[in-house]
């Protein structure tokens, strides 16, 4: 016997289309945003370039999760946006897929913590925390952060949390509010 909850978790065609639109939109933004990373990396702020800019690269997943309210929407949304970025000749090439998976998985965990029963500010807050921690651990090994001094690591972590908190938290919440008010998701 199907429950109402089961019906809400099923993916409809409009969910898939909306997810694709989010992925394409953010894939383009991600590719353009790479220029910001390059500009910052060309200055004495180079060690901070990744952490300052990272929040933008984590927006697609949480936005997909909030809008679609489906298990896995956050992970798939982030992964697809990374694939779109890669196909737009991203400077990071196929590594985008790995980063997109890790970022999407990290953001998805925040929604999973609430048992997928809360799709509001609380879940989004958990999503920003889990994304900050997991992506930072990833960069400890993948980006050579382990070679940095401990005080710099603390500073990078704080900068990363602020970036993710603003872009993938506050800004995503505002975008979701605007889209919800437009009524486009109810059609």
Model description:
The chain crosses the membrane at residues 12-32, 52-68, 80-102, 122-141, 153-175. Keywords: Membrane, Transmembrane, Transmembrane helix. InterPro entries: ABC_thiamin-permease_prd. It holds the Pfam family ABC_cobalt. It comes from Weissella diestrammenae. The protein has 187 residues and is mostly helical. The chain has one domain. Helix content is 74%, strand content 0%. The chain has eight helices and no strands. It has helices at 4-9, 13-41, 49-53, 60-68, 73-87, 95-113, 121-142, 150-182. α4 (60-68) packs across α5. The protein starts with a helix and ends in a 5-residue tail after the last helix. 36% of the residues are buried. The mean pLDDT is 93.
Approximate strand percentage = under 5%
N-to-C CA distance: 27 Å
Helix percentage? over 70%
Order of helices and strands: HHHHHHHH
Evaluate the radius of gyration.
Answer: 17 Å
Largest sheet: none
Poorly predicted segments: none
Number of domains: 1
Number of distinct helices: 8
**Given the helix and strand composition, which structural class is it?**
mainly alpha
Average pLDDT score: 93
Global shape: globular
**Number of beta-strand segments:** 0
Question: In a nutshell, what does this entry contain?
Answer:
This is ECF transporter S component. Helix content is 74%, strand content 0%.
Descriptors for this entry?
globular; 187 residues; mainly alpha
């Amino acid at each position: 016997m199907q429950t109402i909850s089961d019906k809400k978790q099923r993916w409809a065609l409009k969910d898939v289309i909306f997810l694709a639109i989010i992925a394409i939109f953010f894939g383009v933004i991600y590719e353009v945003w790479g220029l910001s990373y390059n500009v910052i990396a060309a200055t004495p702020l180079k060690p901070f370039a990744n952490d300052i800019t990272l929040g933008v690269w984590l927006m697609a997943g949480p936005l997909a999760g909030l809008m679609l309210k489906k298990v896995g929407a956050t992970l798939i949304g982030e992964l697809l946006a990374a694939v779109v970025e890669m196909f737009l000749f991203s400077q990071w090439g196929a590594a985008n897929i790995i980063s997109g998976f890790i970022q999407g998985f990290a953001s998805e965990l925040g929604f999973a913590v609430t048992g997928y029963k809360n799709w509001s500010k609380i879940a989004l807050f958990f999503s920003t925390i889990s994304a900050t921690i997991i992506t930072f651990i990833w960069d400890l090994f993948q980006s050579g952060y382990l070679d940095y001094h401990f005080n710099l690591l603390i500073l990078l972590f704080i900068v990363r949390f602020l970036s993710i908190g603003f872009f993938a938290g506050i800004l995503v919440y505002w975008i979701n509010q605007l889209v919800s008010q437009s009524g486009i998701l109810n059609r």
